[in-house]
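Let's see one such:

===
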Amino acid sequence: MKRALLRGFCFLLALAAHSAPPPEIRGVWVDRTPLATRESIAKMLDDLKNANCNAVFVNVWSRGYPLWRSAVFQQHTGVFTDPVYLGRDVLAEVIEEARPRGLAVIPWVEYGFVIGYTGGKAPLVEVQPGWLARRKDGSVEFSWAGTTRSYWIAHAHPEGQRFLLDLMRELAANYDVPAIQFDRARYPELDCGYDDATKALYAAEHDGAPPPDDERNAEWMRWRALKLNAFVERIGRVIKSANWRILSTSAPIVYSFSYVNFLQEYPAWIKAGSLDFVSPQVYRSDMAGFTAELDRQLAAVGGDGTRFAPGIDVTNGGTEVLIRSIEICRERKLPGVVIWYYGGLVQKDSWDRLKTTVFQEPASLPWK
């Protein structure tokens, strides 16, 4: 009798394991809009939970401010967080609301090296003007989505780098999260890197010679890209030193467009082990374009898709293209996807279609 019960129990366990969907990342990027109130945060998380998503990539570094109460930021500026949020720790609120819903919260450091924009200069632009990235002509404002201008930390500036690394260490040490995503680990354009700190570092490594005036000079491009590669590797080490369980990730532009235009070489980050997984922005409006680009990116990382959870843009192609793109990723046995973005899913009213097709059942995350 006992043996029969045991066999029956084992059979039920095997059946349950067989019927459960395999682990995968079902991530969604969340911008500032639904973070306005605790109530809007809860509504956003309910939407994602009900659609069987499992990871929330929430914007926590935006417009030159942290969206958590940052002692590191306060030491430099005198303020803890974006004053728009009236002293709230937005990240802590999202984590508290997500926990009972079974959703993983991944801090998305969206602005990366960006510390302000002309729509409202952030404190670091005023407090640390020596950190600012510059063009050959000395200007410090770079285009942002064609409508505003942004200010960036000079990518090789040692104090600017230390500030960003301290922010990452603070996040990893103080918040119960499974991963941290550092975005915009790139240059705003090729005519950048002509600040005093970067020029001095280049000269020190080139017998006193200044950087070339030609921003497309191959050696000058390579030098800047390698410095950026080294910084991404440092981010991973800093995060692990604060909490070895936390994964390091990024959402780069597709390669090689990313390198030619922004000196971003994410395949090198994967091959060097600097990232635990990567979500390249494979944003295409049709299936042929998405499939071709996805395969190009997989080839760029040597065909290894085990750490590859591509970004998919629902705002461009709509719900049906999103669904088919997720299916294509599963056919290639990728560990999941990240969807741009929550607001797009709302606009396209994608929830029911997701739940009746590719997200019919809840799925656990691969790292669990």
User: Anything to note?
Assistant: Residues 4-18 have pLDDT under 50 and may be disordered. The CA atoms of residues 126 and 267 lie 35 Å apart.
